Amino acid sequence: MAIEVRIPTILRTYTDGEKAVEGNGATLAELFADLDTRHAGIQARIVDKDNGDQLRRFVNVYLNDEDVRFIDGISTKLADGDSVTILPAVAGGMR
Fold first, then answer.
1. Does 65 reside within a domain?
2. Nearest residue to 46 via CA among 9, 74, 24
3. Residue 93: inside a domain, yes or no?
4. What is the reported pLDDT for 51?
5. Predicted structure pTM score
């Protein structure tokens, strides 16, 4: 089962600069674990192990353009051909 994962610029150091990579898994949790086997360290930037293996607070993840926080979070089920987009929340700016 191939899932396309779109990687934001800030995490591309883990994917050797690749904008998109493929992964496998029946759920987001399995997908992120699979990605970490080829792109060591990326899972820790997305998943907060100290908070019960939940998505990090300032990381938004979309499954086929739907926010997974409104589906089943990290337990969201995946299907072959799905597209996952990882977007870190951005804050700040000038006053």
1. yes
2. 74
3. no
4. 84
5. 0.90
**Strand order of the sheet with strand 59-63?**
20-23, 3-6, 83-88, 59-63, 66-67
In the numeric block, the tokens 């926080």 are attached to 69
What lies within 8 Å, CB to CB, of 7 at 6+ separation is 14, 15, 18, 19, 20, 21, 86
Q: What is the 8-class DSSP label of residue 64?
A: T
Full DSSP string of 45-76: HHEEGGGTSEEPTTEEEEETTEEGGGTTGGG-
Mean pLDDT by 10 residues, the chain (95 residues): 92 96 96 96 93 89 95 95 92 66
List beta partners, residue 67: 62
Domains contained in the chain, number: 1
The total number of residues written for the chain in this structure = 95
For position 40, what pLDDT does the model report? 96
DSSP letter, residue 71: T
Flag whether 95 is in a domain.
no
